[in-house]
Write a structure and sequence with these properties.
Structural class: alpha+beta
Strand order of the largest sheet: 1-2-3-4-5-7-6
Shape: globular
Largest sheet: 7 strands, mixed
CATH class: Alpha Beta
CATH superfamily: Gcn5-related N-acetyltransferase (GNAT)
CATH architecture: 3-Layer(aba) Sandwich
CATH topology: Aminopeptidase
């Protein structure tokens, strides 16, 4: 079941994010890149929860997936990745953002991510946005392509410890 995330969900979401990244990224990133990304990039963006645009997927009273959309400028990264206030986007000219998707490895490839993305796309469209952008991790690229997103640019994010995290900026018209 999909429902809006609340601040009470944050501890469970932090655990899910680490489990998801460690379990689903090993074919794409080195162990050092994975740990660095968990420390410096992947995490909760509390602005999404405040804005009411972050969702959880529960199964048997456990959070097994999460993801959201944003009407703000940040393309990817949790609270630890942002240094400034996140300005609002203009739906008339800007693309909404698809943000922070993670699925528990034991529940991967069962349509959970697709369901949350569809929820986000509908919400962004109902808020006046005509397109979406995202910063996909390498394991997420095949899913996003299958859902109609197109790669725009490869970003090699240099992390504070010197690790480099490959991310693909993608876009879709809705």
């Amino acid at each position: 079941m999909i429902k809006l995330a609340t601040f009470e969900h944050i501890p469970a979401l932090q655990q899910l994010i680490a489990i998801s990244v460690r379990g689903l990224s090993t074919a794409y990133y080195t162990p050092a890149q994975i740990e660095s990304a968990i420390r410096y990039v992947f995490g909760i963006d509390s602005q999404l929860i405040s804005d009411g645009t972050y969702y959880i997927f529960e199964e048997d009273h456990a959070i097994v997936g999460c993801g959201g959309w944003s009407k703000r400028n940040t393309l990817y990264g949790g609270d630890q990745h942002k240094e400034t206030e996140d300005p609002l986007l203009d739906p008339a000219k800007d693309a909404a953002r698809i943000r922070a998707f993670f699925v528990h490895p034991d529940h991967a490839r069962r349509g959970i991510g697709r369901q949350i993305i569809a929820t986000c796309e509908a919400a962004a469209k109902s808020n006046g946005f005509a397109s979406l952008e995202l910063g996909a991790t390498l394991p997420g690229v095949p899913l996003y392509i299958a859902m109609g997103y197109h790669p725009l640019q490869r970003i090699d994010e240099l992390l504070p410890d010197g690790e480099v995290l490959g991310i693909v900026k993608m876009q879709k018209k809705i």
